[in-house]
Amino acid sequence: MTDLLAAAAGAALVFAATNVDDIVVLTVLFVAARATGRPRPWRIVAGQYLGIGALVATALVVAAGLLVVPDPWTGLLGLLPIGLGIRALLARTDDEAPPAVVGGALGVAGVTIANGADNIAVYVPVFRSLEPAVGLVWLVVFAVLVALWCAVAALLGGHPRVVRLVGRVGHWLVPAIFVGVGLVILVTSGVLTRLADLAS
Questions:
Q1: pLDDT value of residue 98
Q2: Residue range(s) defining the domain that contains residue 120
Q3: How far is CA 40 from the centre of its chain?
Q4: CB distance 100 to 34 below 8 Å
Q5: Would you give the DSSP letter of residue 99?
Q6: Could you tell me the CA-to-CA distances from 31 to 64, 80, 162, 179 in Å, in that order?
Q7: pLDDT tens digits for 103-140?
Q8: Cα–Cα 20 to 30 A to 173, which of 52, 64, 111, 181?
Q9: SS3 helix, strand, coil % of the chain, rounded to 5?
Q10: Are 51 and 119 within 8 A, CB to CB?
């Protein structure tokens, strides 16, 4: 029993450390959902599960030695949230509602995957070292924590101060957050350095 609790605690720690930035993105999506109706809350939750599920599945496949992830080329996924943010900025209207940067579950999943592509580098060595039973505990903990992340973001997205802030500056803040997330992915992944080396 102690081993299972230790496994659950380890899984929770790794999940929290690698997905803390998702809270910001999810909160912005829930605020947009309240203001514009897009994306629907269930699509945000479904997209988050799809995205985290894809990241974990990829890490499991890589850990099993069946696939090699080209590092740091996964950093190019940062172009997805940048593109979504720029599209939302260009499509802004005169109303004060934050723009619907992402419309459906697949869009949310895409942003989650782009934002968490670097998580694979953490998950692979961990999953490689886990016994199957312990790995199952990790998967259950991850599934529970995705729900918790969505619940926290939904609460933050309904908080009056957050809603007021996004209502005042959401027309540029929401897209700016997505562009910022994409830039962080590009810069921290090392893909820009790799591209510069190829160009020289």
A1: 55
A2: 2-199
A3: 17
A4: no
A5: P
A6: 39, 20, 8, 17
A7: 688 888 888 888 777 788 788 888 888 888 888 999 99
A8: 52
A9: 80, 0, 20
A10: no
